[in-house]
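Lay summary. Proteins are chains of building blocks that fold into shapes, and those shapes determine what they do. In this project we predict the shape from the chain. Here is one chain we studied, written as its sequence of building blocks.
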Amino acid sequence: MATLSFIPVYPEENCFSIASQALKLTTEEDITPHLDAILKISAVNKIDLSGNTLGIDASKALAKLIASNESIYNNLKEVNFADLYTSRLVDEVVESLNVLLPAFLKCPKLTIVNLSDNAFGLRTIDSLESYISNATALEHLILSNNGMGPFAGERIGKALFHLAKNKLKLTPPAPLLSTFICGRNRLENGSSLYLALGLKAHAAGLKTVKLYQNGIRPRGIMNLIHYGFKYNTHLEVLDLQDNTLTKTASLMLAENLPIWKDVLVELNLNDCLLKKDGADAIMDVFTKLTFPHLKALKLEFNEIVQSTIEEKLLKALESKKLPELKVLQINGNVLEEDSEALDTLQGMFDDLELDDLEELDSDEEESDEEDDENETFQSVETDLLEKDLSQLEIDSLIADLAKASI
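And here is the predicted shape, written in a compact code that computers can read:
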């Protein structure tokens, strides 16, 4: 994964890393030398075990170390546990998370958690949902390529909703989630409504949302925009790459783009099937409003046509509506290779790639896309859904208090 802008640089002496060593840490004995090394650090800010494989007994030993040592749990700010379960059985992964995630909850400064590239699926959703709901220190959650599926995605959305409520209960309230990265998880339309409500709950806190490669179709994208994104008024990075917008969702996105005109830094719509009308609607916004901080605009493989580039994109650039744009991606669209417009753009952007321009799709492909075009927005009483989620939280609290009284 590329370096992320929110990842801080800690003093080397405060970090422990065995990243990408392909170590098989199965038993307590296997992991003990590394635990001993962690204990030698006076104030542990970061633990990076990514690219190794962790078993149950090793997980228990690590969790005990984190939860029982003040120099760790009082200082830990970031854990990178990406790609940590290669060759492990699902039962091993479930039990490992069941001991590690409660240990994370004991760390009051743990703001960055990366659990990407682990085959979690549905079996781990109970522990993940519980952790996310209660991790009030959490500000940056990276949860990509975990085999979630739409039902698990819905549960993650509910967990984000409860997380926001739990953060706001604190005195003073804890900062809301700033980063949510959940790509390559087959979230599809089925997760979109509750995911939107979860993102909405973090309101102006969210600055980065990346939901790339999730098979979300126009209706799901519209749910995300209408019930979620439009409340995230400080959004700097929006990445929807390799989902499907077509005209319907593109029009809704264009309608809401002005919300972020003063904050947006990157918009990634590569492989989103905007098509001509969708691209025109989005480009019209850029011709009318100035986006002073937009540095990256990614629009590859969207069936964008020459007239959109000539009449709208160039107009926005030449009228200084995108004064800070440094990265433009328009490869793979239906453009005229030898044209004055593309020559002009290549003069503006040194790294502009135009080596894979497309012809119009075949009739067969266009027929397949008609199903997406027919997906229209359907209004939902989300106030009732949010009320139900809040009531579930109250019911859970009452149940916990009842257990405590016994």
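What the prediction tells us: The two ends are 48 Å apart (CA to CA).
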